[in-house]
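Transposase
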Amino acid sequence: MQVELPDEQWDALSSGRLEGPDGRRYQRRSTRMRRRQVDDLLSSGAPLVLYWYGGSQLDWCDGEDARRAWEAARSRLTTSVPRPDGDVVWTAGEWVSDDTSLVLLTGTC
């Protein structure tokens, strides 16, 4: 399933909070994950949120949609500054609720 999250969630991200479409609340735990860490979380069923920083858009993906979105972004994951070629690069962070985690990918150019 892929869902565009409402605009209120955009504002909450800067405070390190996010509410999923099911009402579950998440808080930022980390901001710089490596590919293998993301692989592990998504393999365990964690949802993936794409935070399109330049476009003010948040896309919630889970299940097969999360795996497809991650596969498209995986090679452009970085733990450093954006590449000088201007292509979109992603950083990944883990966000946690009481009983689960999600991966938030932040896309920048």
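thats it. The longest strand covers residues 89-96. The chain has a mean pLDDT of 86. bye
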